[in-house]
Amino acid sequence: MKHKMNARAFKALIAAVFAVSATVVPISQSFAAGESLGKKCTTEGVMTGTKSTSLICTESNGKLTWQRVKLASGNGRPVANLTPPKGEIEFWHYRVELADQRALVKIINDFEAKYPGTKIKQVVRDTTTYNNTARVAILANPKAALFATSRGAIFDQFAKSDMMLDLSNQRYVKQNVVAKGLTAGQYEGKQLGIPYQYLFNNPIVNTEIWKKEKWTTPKNLSGWVAWCKDAKAKGYTPLAWPGATRGQAAQISNSALMNSASSYAELAGNLADLNSGKIDLTSKWFQGVADIYVKLRDAGCFPANATGVTEAAAYNLFATGKSPILPIGTFAMSSIIALNPDLNGKMELMSMILTDGKVVAEGIMNNTYTLSVNKNSSTRDQKIANAFLSYLLTGKVAEIYANETLQHVNVLDVEYKNVNLLNTVSFQAKNTMLAPRFLLLNAAVSDLTQDALIQIVGGKDPDVVLPDFSRQIKQKLQG
Amino acid sequence: MGLPAAILFGLFYFVPFIANLRYSLTKWDRITDPEFVGIRNFVNLLTNDDLFYKVLGNNLRFTFLVVLFQTLFSLIFALFLVKNTRANIALRTLFFFPTILSSVSVGMIWLFMYDPNFGAVNLFFTKLGLEGFALNWLGSEGSALYAIAFTQVWFHTGQMMVIYIAGLQQIPQELYESASMDGATRWQQFKHVTWPMSIPTTIVVMAYTTIQSFRAFDLIFSMTQGGPNNSSNIFAVLIYQTVFSELRIGYAATQSIFFIIVLVLVTVLQRKFLNSRYEK
Predict the structure, then answer these.
(1) Which CATH class is domain A87-196+367-416?
(2) Do B217 and B240 meet the contact criterion of CB atoms below 8 Å apart?
(3) What's the rounded mean pLDDT across residues A151-167?
(4) pLDDT in tens, A99-142
(5) Equal fold, A87-196+367-416 vs A204-350+442-478
(6) Which of A131, A307, A445, A456 to mutate to test the interface with B (most CBs of B within 10 A)?
(7) What pLDDT shows up at residue A29?
(8) Whole-number Å distance between alpha carbons of B202 and A387
(9) Chain A within 8 Å of B246 (Cβ-Cβ)?
(10) Smallest Cβ distance to B117: which of A157, A304, A443?
């Protein structure tokens, strides 16, 4: 009985976390009986979407009922975009991908057609160049009135430079954006950016292979170890893990980290201590994280010559069916479809619970591609930027971006039409954690931490790797 | 006449050099104001930075290998292709071709070639039954630097070959005729005529290759970004990472001072060695 109660409490927690502001507005039971949805409310935490009218199955007075969720931070329905003055601004970002360009060009053309005399000029750099040069360039260029940053160290650097306008009081921020997704754009209590994308950095699974082999989702670390052995024995490379591309190799570390501490607060504390040098990679906590990698490595989860597998090679392994799982995230789906159109509609997300102990979270989400208004731009240019940002944050416009780029967005009232987005949107109902690896804000610490884990997958002994990389981190922090 | 040149030199070389010296005495992240730290960066670099010594070793090894093999291969190709026949001109074009590609393209091509599971290099060895040579080329600490050095040699040998051909074609034909009349063999002709006469070209080729190999940033960055575990990292990549990834501008300025010192030392020693041969 006690166990049953705990399970219920846990499910309630899932619902509460997902319901973002944890504010559930009850509506009449007769309205929410389930008829309008065509299905009954039987599983606590299941949601009907990220619309302002979405419902969530939650417990009330001992019964499971559909209730309306309040996803935004403010009250009221999403608002229309602001009207811009005439003029031209630059929109700096790093989405060079063709799908993003198709979507953004259409959105900008529509915006300019709606407001003649207002122009948005895109300035696009690849991610590496952007991360390394954009901050200084934008600081010197007030015409760059709207710009993007990625979550973590880059957003932090921009925020420290005092170049972002506080958007906390904008109505569209309060009413058009999923409140939980705003956290990544906050700095010292101010809303300095609006994360546009709502990503899931969880493994993507090839559902056809999964069904053919009659596999079920492993429930814990032991389950994953057993599954890897089975998949390997059947001739698959269990995880198409790109050990040669640090940024993508690191995605799986989110799953390893998410249940490595007893709570998110404890995990965040551990990562902050690692970041500042208070603890190092030889700490008991991180040894536990490393041990997950050892177990997965020894079970044959990773590809042969894993440290030499590039991102392109990992995509190839997955797209050609040699590997049933790509442990990267939803953002890889469009590349996979480009490689093998037959996989369209045959990919789903999977929880990767890498602990045999307490489960803190079932999956990873991340809010990135954070859009900010330049504090140093002229008032007129800020108004244009603000108006265009509010336009991007309306459901119908965000829909264009989401369906073209195959990315979920952090915007309310979006109708996902793409089969892959629909197949994965159910993950929003899970108890997900904001990707913890980005809490390592010191780039050197973050890179060395990931490199240490990559070395372990490459076959090295953690007893050698962890002290070695701890020394390297210490030297970087002292330098 | 020299004034415009002096102004340009001052503006684009001397001023940045002095600024770099100044930054090397600071702790600066490009966000907050620079903080004067005296010679702390220098002390740290020399006494508490294992990575610096690792990168120094990598850079010297990389340079040695590239200079040695690039010079050797370009000289050999030049010797074979020095005559202006149609076949030779066609082959020269072929060997020169990689030089016109961008470094990043070359890096990406070889990244695919070296792929341990799908790459052409391992496929080649496997087809020949030489599985032992099918390595994790760029993913292993033991082979990454050598694999990139090979790519660098492939990339630039054609360019150096052209310089050698130009040098070899300047050697008076009479010297070979005299040597031939004296009964000199091909090897003796090479040893006593070609090699001594091509030392000035060799000095140019080696100096250029040395600088080129110290600056092989784009190739290394596109192939391994200095990994795994900094086993293929060289100064140019390290300085970039320190500036743009870690935002430690003062420390990077210190690293770049040592980079210049090492580069100057290597070039001076190399020239001394070759000049002594030339004078002999």
Answers:
(1) alpha beta
(2) yes
(3) 93
(4) 899 999 999 999 999 999 999 999 999 888 898 889 999 999 99
(5) yes
(6) A307
(7) 31
(8) 63
(9) yes
(10) A304
Q: For residue A12, give the nearest of A27, A30, A24 by alpha carbon.
A: A24
Q: Is the pLDDT of residue A18 over 50?
A: no
Q: With contact defined as beta carbons under 8 Å apart, do A171 and A178 qualify?
A: no
Q: CA of A158, closest CA in chain B: separation in Å?
A: 9
pLDDT band, residue B256 (cuts 50/70/90): very high
Question: Which residues from chain B sit within 8 angstroms of residue A475, using beta carbons?
Answer: 48-51
From CA A433, how far away is CA A266, in angstroms rounded?
Answer: 13
Tell me the mean pLDDT in the region A210-221. 95
Q: CA of B71, closest CA in chain A: separation in Å? A: 30
Q: Where are the domains of chain B?
A: 20-279
Q: What CA–CA distance (Å, rounded) separates A103 from A399?
A: 10
Cα–Cα distance measured from residue B244 to residue A37, given in angstroms and rounded to the nearest whole number: 51
Q: Report residue B32's pLDDT band, with 50, 70 and 90 as the boundaries.
A: confident
Residue A474 has pLDDT above 90, yes or no: yes
pTM as predicted: 0.83
ipTM score: 0.86
Residue B279, pLDDT > 80, answer no
Determine whether the interchain pair A475/B114 forms a contact, defined as Cβ–Cβ distance below 8 Å. Answer: no
Q: Domain B20-279: give its CATH architecture.
A: Orthogonal Bundle (1.10)
- pLDDT > 70 fraction of chain A, expressed in percent and rounded: 87
Gap from B45 CA to chain A (nearest CA, Å): 8
For residue B11, the distance in angstroms to the closest alpha carbon of chain A comes to: 21
Quick one: pLDDT band at residue A15, thresholds 50, 70, 90?
A: very low
Q: Nearest to residue A434, comparing CAs of A187, A253, A180?
A: A180
Contacts of A316 in chain B (CB under 8 A): 118
* Amino acid, single-letter form, for residue A76: G
Q: In A, what residues contact B, Cβ < 8 A?
A: 131-133, 135-136, 157, 160-161, 243-244, 246, 303-310, 312-313, 316-317, 442-444, 447, 451, 454-455, 458, 471-472, 475-476, 478-479
CATH architecture of A204-350+442-478: 3-Layer(aba) Sandwich (3.40)
Question: A116: cis peptide before it, omega within 30°?
Answer: no
Break chain A into its structural domains and give their ranges. 2-69, 87-196+367-416, 204-350+442-478
Which tens digit of pLDDT belongs to each residue from A277-329? 999 999 999 999 999 999 999 999 999 999 999 999 999 999 999 999 999 99
The dihedral sign for the CA sequence A307, A311, A313, A319: positive
Round the CA-based radius of gyration of chain B to a whole number and report it. 22
| Distance of residue B53 Cα from the nearest chain A Cα, in angstroms | 12
Q: Answer whether A475 sits within 8 Å of B244, measured CB to CB.
A: no
